[in-house]
Structures are given as C-alpha cells and as structure tokens.
Amino acid sequence: MNRYVPLLLARARALLRLPGGPPDQLARSEIRPAARAVLALHEGLVGERNLARPETYRGEHLGAYLLWWWPQSYLKTQAALRLAPLPLPRAPRILDVGAGPAPAALAALDLLGGSAAAFDASSEALAEARALGIAETTTSLPQERFDLSLVANVLSELPAPLDLLRRLSGVVVVIEPALRETGRALLELRDQLLAQGFRALAPCLTQKPCPALASAKDWCTAEVGWTPPRYFQQLAEATGLRADEMLSFAPLVLAKEAPPPEADLWRVVGAPQPEKGKQRLWVCSDLGREPVVLLDKQAALANADFASLRRGDLVRLRGLERRGDGLRVVPGATVERS
Ligand SMILES: C[S@@+](CC[C@H](N)C(=O)[O-])C[C@H]1O[C@@H](n2cnc3c(N)ncnc32)[C@H](O)[C@@H]1O
Questions:
Q1: Is a pLDDT exceeding 80 seen at residue 259?
Q2: Is the Cβ atom of 64 under 6 angstroms away from ligand 1?
Q3: Which tens digits make up the pLDDT trace of 264-280?
Q4: Is the distance from the beta carbon of residue 99 to the nearest atom of ligand 1 less than 6 Å?
C-alpha cells in the first residue's frame, strides 16, 4: 500500500488544489484544507448518506476519498482475498465493480497478478483509477466473463444490489462497512444469493442460512491490522476521525462452485471477550454460531493459539466439550490457527 502514498498525495493535491509538499506527508499549510475535505465527505457518507452516489466522486470529494478511504479499501480487499483459498486461475481476469479510483482492483492485482478492468458510473473516479495504474476502465458493466469480481463499499449506494450481484461472474468478493445495518443487509443478500445457486466461500463455512441473522444484534465482521501512513495520521489528528491499527469490514466471498466445508474448521466471528478467569470468542461453522471458552487455568501449549485469534481467522478446534457457557476447550482439546 505504501508505494501508492506519493501518487495518492499528488492526485489529491491536484483535486483539492493544495499548495504541495513532501511526497509522504502533508505540509503544515495543507493539513487544514485536506482535513476539512475529509470531514465534509465523511459527514455525507454517514447518517443520512446524502453523498453516497456517483455524482459525489469528483473534485474535492474525490481528492478526500483518495486520502482517507482509498488506503482502507485497498487493505480490506487484500484481507478479504486472504479469507479463503480461492478457485482462481493464474493471472486472473478481474472486474472491479463500483471501482471508484480502483483501490480494490489494484489491491487484487498486487496480490494475485493478472489483469483488471474498473467499472464505475463516475468517469472522474475512473480517471483517477487510470492515474493510479488501471489501464482498462468503463462506465458500463462489461458483459464478458471474469474470474474475479470485486464489489467494495458499493452495495449501500445501489437501489437494487441483488440485481447487480446476480449478474457478476467468477469468484465474487463483496466488502461492506462493518456497521450493523450494512453488515446485516449483506448477510440478507448472502442468504438470497445462496438460494439462487451461489455458494459461500468466506467468511461462511456453512451453506445454510446465516446464523447471525437469528438475533437482531449480530452481524459478521473481519479485521486487518495496518500502520497508517504519516499523512493519514496527520489527517486523523486534524479531523478527530479514528486511524485505528485495526480496520474492520464486513466481507462476503461467493462463487458458483465451492468445496464442502472441512470438519472441525471454524471462522472466528466475534472479538475476543476477556472475562474473569476465562477468555471467550464467537466462532461459526456448519454447526452454527457458538461461543468457545478457554479457562485461564487450562491454558496450555495445545491451545496456545487461542490467545492470538482475531475476527476473520480460521481455526481448527478438536476435542471440545459442550458446557453451559459454550464449547469448552478442555484438557486434551486442541486449538490450531489455520
Ligand atoms: C464508496 S465508493 C467505493 C469505491 C471503491 N470500490 C472502494 O471500495 O473504495 C462507491 C462507488 O460506487 C460507484 N457507484 C455508485 N452507484 C453506482 C452505479 N449504479 N453504477 C456504477 N457505479 C456506481 C460510485 O461512483 C463510487 O465510485
């Protein structure tokens, strides 16, 4: 990601008409106007979401998007692509849908190689995608077959997301904000797509209806760690927006074909919850969504991986016993991060 920083700064400077400065950070005189632009777009993309539409992605808003959202989408896309082994050929053909300035396409190209096309309704956003290295851009959905279709942070801007998703080919990777409404809407779409012949590759290890939808307070997120670049930290300080070391997102990976889930394999779907004398986290598999509990006094080499498990991780759990507070990691059980 860091290699894009000088280019992101250069393009954002042009769009925001900033005076200019070093290649890896904002000059003092640039921080205020850049922060103001990031906050203006942030406010329009949360709450009423009156800026969540293609006309937004031009001029100053687009400059702000490059600075604040672009690096996060890039990181989240690579993390989503790592959630499961994907049935992709060498040098896959990649389509980035609602690409904007194409952080998802570039993230996938950098990870997988191949070639990518970026589709978006905003030609200004596509011009930035080209400036960042995507040669092929289009303002209408291509009809050809792709090996991998990426849909990052787009669904909540569409009137009929299911119609778009149904038309995509290959492995389909969807990323949505880790918010309750967008996260739960994604799980509802998941269930509808599975009913229409798609198979879930990640985060799900089950093809049954999503167990998180049973309770109104649950949804499914993953996270990825990063060290924000210097200019990003400058913006975080100036805006008061958070630049956490962990980026959360709601992922979904689908395909028309998928192998059956491996026995004993679970996905970590809830943040670790330290409690008095024990640790607890939520995991999900074909058997449902369950809490797993490790008593501190039973911490051992065979379950040492438990302590470092994070949302989104895959873990092999063997020999657990069902107790009142969930699946218990008893002596002799093994916890192996996959
Ligand atoms: C929040 S941005 C996401 C950009 C990029 N995928 C990312 O993850 O950072 C949403 C993008 O969806 C595009 N978009 C919204 N509605 C669209 C539509 N009906 N057809 C094509 N693109 C659309 C917007 O122009 C914008 O570039």
A1: no
A2: no
A3: 999 998 776 778 999 99
A4: yes
Residue-wise pLDDT for 50-64, tens only, equals 888 888 899 999 999
Residue nearest to atom 18 of ligand 1 (CA): 121
Domain 265-337: which CATH number of 2.40.50.140, 3.40.1180.10, 2.130.10.10, 2.40.50.320: 2.40.50.140
- Using CA atoms, how far apart are residues 127 and 130, in angstroms rounded to an integer? 5
Dihedral pair phi/psi, residue 177, rounded to 5° = -60, 150
What pLDDT is attached to residue 16? 97
Domain extent listing, the chain: 2-255, 265-337
Q: Which of 8, 42, 120, 168 to mutate to test the pocket of ligand 1 (most atoms within 8 A of CB)?
A: 120
Given a contact cutoff of 8 angstroms between Cβ atoms, the answer to whether 311 and 221 are in contact is: yes
Q: Does the 2-255 domain belong in CATH 3.40.50.150? A: yes
pLDDT category at 325 given cuts 50, 70, 90 is confident
Residues 6 or more apart whose Cβ sits within 8 Å of residue 301: none
